[in-house]
Amino acid sequence: ADPLRTLRLPAFAGRGFTDEELRAAMPVAMVSHAFWTTQLGSDQTAVGRTIRVAGRAHVIVGIMPERTRLW
């Protein structure tokens, strides 16, 4: 499920997952605001960049709002 849609939150940048991406298990990712800040240096061009998750390339489609905790 798309956490932004589930929690009814806007993305800080980019967007949430589309139904097609979820259905097809496409290699896309949303990153936390903290990850974006600490690991990506608050790079304004992070959406669209590729990161590796569990050894597999994923395209960043969105950045979660600041202080959003999913667990």
The SSE order reads: HEHEHEE
Subunit organisation of the chains: single chain
Radius of gyration: 12 Å
Cα end-to-end separation: 15 Å
The biggest sheet amounts to: 4 strands, mixed
What percentage of amino acids are in beta strands?
25-35%
How many strand segments?
4
**pLDDT < 50 stretches:** none
Mean pLDDT: 93
DSSP helical segment count: 3
Helix content: 10-25%
Which outline best applies?
Answer: globular
Please state the structural category.
alpha+beta
Walk me through this protein's architecture.
With 71 residues, the chain is α+β, with helices and mostly antiparallel strands. It is 23% helix and 25% strand. It has helices at residues 3-7, 19-23, 33-38, and strands at 13-14, 28-31, 50-53, 56-63. Strands 1, 2, 3 and 4 form a 4-stranded mixed sheet that branches. The longest helix is centred in the middle third of the chain and has 6 residues, at 33-38.
What keywords describe this structure?
71 residues, alpha+beta
How would the blueprint of this fold be written?
Elements: H1 3-7, E1 13-14, H2 19-23, E2 28-31, H3 33-38, E3 50-53, E4 56-63
Parallel strand pairs: 2-4
Antiparallel strand pairs: 1-4, 3-4
Short description:
This protein has 71 residues and is α+β, with helices and mostly antiparallel strands. Helix content is 23%, strand content 25%. It is built from three helices and four strands; from the N terminus they run αβαβαββ.
